[in-house]
Every structure is written in structure tokens, then in C-alpha cells.
């Protein structure tokens, strides 16, 4: 402080103190803008002092231009009380400038300058309540018709892409393991990586959709999914394929939270529950599409090509490519649809929202034969805004502006996420977390456990048909046919030829092979244990030494061994067809549950539908103990899927209606991310008990569903309420 100011340096100290408080209020978001703010406050203090005391002379104070501090060009020529100057935190009103406060006055000015956040939230909440009521009446005037049905099919494609993503990896694994030499741990990681990606994507895109818009965020998310799904069909290595499927999952993770929130904001109260439930049918269509395409494409090995031994493009890669089509179609269709008008109103964009609502009204009225009807709404309530971005002026570098924007956006998203756990929503959020977790843990755990149990039962039945040969002697015989599911013990083979054949699940124990010839052999799950080979030639076979367990080789030779993965057990085509068929039936079985939930959602309420469906699903779990055959397990899978889908539909509708529009996709995205985490845990735990016991999966699933149905009844009913 310059002592030449006649002791009136309190103005400078006051300005600096106010700047410090501003910095504390907005955190580190403003960056360098805070320093400019301090300079601006200081300049104003001097100017106000000059206005009060025209006789004082500050000409001796060094400075730039005509004041002690150089001011920004952006403030020049504007009214000092009304302008928004460079670096100012724009949403906070200023203190009165008519007096020159002392230190006590500075603290009063601080209290006036920085409005209490609870008071601001109170005003914003009041605006939201008024907007909710008016918005509902506007939707009633717009009606339900052509526009909503068009949006229904557009968003349905995005939801269908999510359903496809769940099944892609499971369908290609039996064939991709040959191309990429996948071990069991690698196959397990590839199966779970999609869920991990979707977990991250749901949280990130859900948070962004509340800040930059539903439509824009969904377009970005689907574009990422499409691009990396396309790349994953061409990459050759395991790591690159894993990365592409992970990133593809991150993209599609935003589909569910955004689609339901987006569509709900075009639906009037009496139509919301029913039509959101109808929208869920596209997830079922995604599963059916994936199963049908896998059935039609993957077994056709002729649909492939290769360039040397380094690059191979087999039919399963064609299937991966085809599975990206729903996302691409959704992107193309979504470009023709507008942003949610509710999002615009929540962010103070009145004119944009009005134009979209007028478009909805006019589209529906023309389709119904009333083109003469005029949209009567002239003014719509908008919610009070508090801008967080800082204007650094035209001189700032572009990368600095982007850094500030991204940092501010991150703080906005994080602040919105924290608001989901504010006292007003804390109990609801914790209850919803428990319900989402219990539902996902049991549903995904069982839906993966069912196919694994079917495979286990198939193996058990296959093993029961194993033929055993003991002490057989074979001489001068040519084997040129498939050898399958046999065990040969203490056999003797002299001058035999094994040529152009496949060996599946073959075991030779304590046997002797003398002057034998093995040529062009393809094997799976085939082993020679404690055998002796004398003067035997192996030519162009995949009988690698790891298949020869404790064997003796005397004057025996391996020539031109086949290249490729050394897999102990490769799934055959029949098993692959069974996987597609079971998935197709399990997905199709949810159709009755979808129809029933859609028709009853607005009649019996969300909570009764959720709790009732969970209780019936819990009871159905006890029938798993009777599933001792392949057909019984398929029937139980269809039963469980058809019942539990009503719970999922109710949960989606309830999540949309429990949170206000400015937090809706953030909360939905977080809960959906928790859902995917529970899915990973459920799949890992349930599949570990395949072939060991049924009791643990039954107890886990039924216990989780019972807890979820009990907690669901503690949630508030949202039927008949306007959208917050």
C-alpha cells in the first residue's frame, strides 16, 4: 500500500479482501481471472474514492493510462454498476458502491457480494417447481403423437445398441480364442471388460448430459461406441481387441441413463410410465438381433480372408462389424431430433425451448388433422442461473480458454454429483443404490450362470457317453475318420497310420505306438499319458509336446508342426449354436413381461410393480434346485427373465422421476454404473460355483432379490406426479 494515499488505503485492502473471498467461493476454477478481479476491484475503489473526494489529487501516483491500475478494455464505456467485467464471477451480485466502507463495512459488503448458497438454491428450487407445473401443462397442450413416436424409434435404436453390446463378446469368444490364443484368464477378462467400460461410461456421460445436453452427449457417446466397435473387428492382437471393446463399452455406457431421461422429458404425466416401459423393448430387440446375426454369420467360415499368416479376418469379425449397425443408425437418426426443451429451460434458454415445444405441438397437431391449432404458450418459466465460466478476454490463448472451460465443466459435473447426496436426496439415493445393486447382482449373475450351467450339464452328458477300450492291439490299420470321446488304456499300435483326421476328447493312457505315422492331425482336448513312441513320425500335426504327458519318445520325429494356438479345449459348432439358441430364447422370453409392465405401470404404480416382480423372481429362484437337465435350465432361464424384466422397467421409470431435471442423468448414470459393478461381482461369484453347488447361487440371488423388494417399498411413489 502506498502511504501517499493519505491513509485511505482501506479501499485497496477492502478490494483485496473481497477478491480473496471470491477466490474462496469459486475455488480454483477461475485461475488467473482472480488476479484480474483483484486489480479490477482495486481500480474501482480508487474511482469511487475520487468520486467522493474530487479535491484530492492522485496525479503523483504512478500508473498506466489515467489511473493507478490499468483497466481492461472490456469494461471501457460501460456503466460501472451493471457491467460484467473481466474475471468476475458472474452469478454473484455486487455490493453497493455508494459508500466507502472501512474494515467492518468490508465484511458487510462481502456478505452482500456473495449470496448465501442455500438462499440461491432455494430460489432455484422454487423456479424448478414452477417450471415443472407449467411444463406439464405445456406437454398436455402439445399432446402425444407423431413426434413422440418418432423419438421413440430413434432412441430405441440407441437402447438396442446397448442390448447388442452385452452379447457381442460372449458370442465371439468360442471362435476368437482360436485367432488370438486366449487362455482362460484372458477369456474371463474379455467377458468382463465390457461391463467395466459401461460402468465408466454411464457415470461420465450421465454427468455430462446434465451440463452440455442430452442429445449432444448421446451423439458423442454413440460415436465413440461405433468407431471402436468398427476398429475391434479388424485389430488382430488380444490387447488391442481388449482396448477397443473397453472403449466401445465406455461409449455405449451412456445410452441407458440418457435415453430414458431424454425421452421422459417429452412425455406427459399420464403417458410416462407406459411409454418408458415400451421403450425397454428395444433392449430385448438388441439381444434378439445379436443372437440372430451370430447364428447367421459366425458359422460361415467362407466369409473370411487372410493376408499371409499375420492378418486374418474370419466370420466372427464380420459379426462384430454388423453389431455396430444399430449405433450407427441411432447416430444418423438422432441428428434429425432436437435437444430436450426441459434441459434448455433448466439452463435459461427460453427461446430455444419454446421453438422445440412449438415444433412438438405443430407436428402432433398436423398428424392428428388439426393443422390450424396454434401453440398458445408465449412465455415459459426458466430457472435462475449462476454462470461458472470466466471470461479471460480476447487476448487469452486458445489452449488456456479450453483448459478453463474443461476445468470448470469438471467442477460443475462433480458438484452436481455431490448434490445427489445432499440432505434432500441422500436417503433416496442410498435406497436406490441398494435396490439397483441387489437387482443387478442377482440378474446378471444368474443370466450368466444359466448358460454356464447348461454347458456343464452338456459336458456331464457328453462324458457319460465316453467309450473305453482296454488292452486293444491294432496293426497295419489306417485311421482317416474322426476319433471322438474315447479312452484307450494299455493299447498296442504297430505300423498304424493316423491321417487327415480330427481327434476330439481323446485320451491314450499307458499305450505303445511303434512305427506309426501321424499326418495332418487336428485335435482338441486330446492327450497321450504315460505312452511310448518308437520310430514314429509326426508330420503337419498339432500334437504339441504339451499334449504328451510323461511320454517317452524313441527315434521319433516331429516335422512341420501346425502353427496356431495351443488350446486344450475348443468349443465346437454345436455348442456355439446352443449358446445362440439359449440367448435367443432367454431374450425373447422377456416379451410378455415387457407388455404386462407397460400396460400396468401407470395403473398399479411403480413401487408395487417393482416389489411384486422382485418377490416373484425371488420365489422362482428356488426352482433352480430342480434344474437337473438342459431343457429344465433353459425353461428356468426364460421364466426368470420374463418375470424380472418388470422390475427393471419399474426401476428405470422410478429413477427418472425421483430426481430433478438438472440432476436426472447424473443420478441415473451413477446408479447405472453401480449396476455394472454389481454385475461384475455377480458374474464372478456365481460362475465360480458352476459344477460345485447350486445352493450358494440360489441363496445369493434370492437373498438379494428379497432385500431389494423390501427396500423398494420404502421409496416414494412417483405415479401421478409431474416430472421434477
UniProtKB/TrEMBL annotation:
<keyword id="KW-0472">Membrane</keyword>
<feature type="domain" description="Major facilitator superfamily (MFS) profile">
    <location>
        <begin position="151"/>
        <end position="719"/>
    </location>
</feature>
<feature type="compositionally biased region" description="Basic and acidic residues">
    <location>
        <begin position="67"/>
        <end position="77"/>
    </location>
</feature>
<feature type="region of interest" description="Disordered">
    <location>
        <begin position="47"/>
        <end position="81"/>
    </location>
</feature>
<feature type="transmembrane region" description="Helical">
    <location>
        <begin position="632"/>
        <end position="654"/>
    </location>
</feature>
<keyword id="KW-0813">Transport</keyword>
<feature type="transmembrane region" description="Helical">
    <location>
        <begin position="318"/>
        <end position="337"/>
    </location>
</feature>
<dbReference type="GO" id="GO:0030672">
    <property type="term" value="C:synaptic vesicle membrane"/>
</dbReference>
<dbReference type="GO" id="GO:0022857">
    <property type="term" value="F:transmembrane transporter activity"/>
</dbReference>
<keyword id="KW-0597">Phosphoprotein</keyword>
<dbReference type="Pfam" id="PF07690">
    <property type="entry name" value="MFS_1"/>
</dbReference>
<dbReference type="Pfam" id="PF23894">
    <property type="entry name" value="LD_SV2"/>
</dbReference>
<keyword id="KW-0325">Glycoprotein</keyword>
<dbReference type="InterPro" id="IPR020846">
    <property type="entry name" value="MFS_dom"/>
</dbReference>
<feature type="transmembrane region" description="Helical">
    <location>
        <begin position="188"/>
        <end position="206"/>
    </location>
</feature>
<dbReference type="GO" id="GO:0043005">
    <property type="term" value="C:neuron projection"/>
</dbReference>
<feature type="transmembrane region" description="Helical">
    <location>
        <begin position="245"/>
        <end position="264"/>
    </location>
</feature>
<feature type="transmembrane region" description="Helical">
    <location>
        <begin position="577"/>
        <end position="600"/>
    </location>
</feature>
<dbReference type="GO" id="GO:0007268">
    <property type="term" value="P:chemical synaptic transmission"/>
</dbReference>
<keyword id="KW-0770">Synapse</keyword>
<feature type="transmembrane region" description="Helical">
    <location>
        <begin position="218"/>
        <end position="239"/>
    </location>
</feature>
<keyword id="KW-1133">Transmembrane helix</keyword>
<dbReference type="InterPro" id="IPR055415">
    <property type="entry name" value="LD_SV2"/>
</dbReference>
<dbReference type="InterPro" id="IPR022308">
    <property type="entry name" value="SV2"/>
</dbReference>
<feature type="transmembrane region" description="Helical">
    <location>
        <begin position="430"/>
        <end position="450"/>
    </location>
</feature>
<keyword id="KW-0532">Neurotransmitter transport</keyword>
<dbReference type="InterPro" id="IPR011701">
    <property type="entry name" value="MFS"/>
</dbReference>
<feature type="transmembrane region" description="Helical">
    <location>
        <begin position="149"/>
        <end position="176"/>
    </location>
</feature>
<feature type="transmembrane region" description="Helical">
    <location>
        <begin position="276"/>
        <end position="298"/>
    </location>
</feature>
<feature type="transmembrane region" description="Helical">
    <location>
        <begin position="666"/>
        <end position="689"/>
    </location>
</feature>
<keyword id="KW-0968">Cytoplasmic vesicle</keyword>
<protein>
    <submittedName>
        <fullName>Synaptic vesicle glycoprotein 2A</fullName>
    </submittedName>
</protein>
<comment type="similarity">
    <text>Belongs to the major facilitator superfamily.</text>
</comment>
<dbReference type="InterPro" id="IPR005828">
    <property type="entry name" value="MFS_sugar_transport-like"/>
</dbReference>
<keyword id="KW-0812">Transmembrane</keyword>
<feature type="transmembrane region" description="Helical">
    <location>
        <begin position="607"/>
        <end position="626"/>
    </location>
</feature>
<dbReference type="GO" id="GO:0006836">
    <property type="term" value="P:neurotransmitter transport"/>
</dbReference>
<dbReference type="InterPro" id="IPR036259">
    <property type="entry name" value="MFS_trans_sf"/>
</dbReference>
<dbReference type="Pfam" id="PF00083">
    <property type="entry name" value="Sugar_tr"/>
</dbReference>
<feature type="transmembrane region" description="Helical">
    <location>
        <begin position="695"/>
        <end position="715"/>
    </location>
</feature>
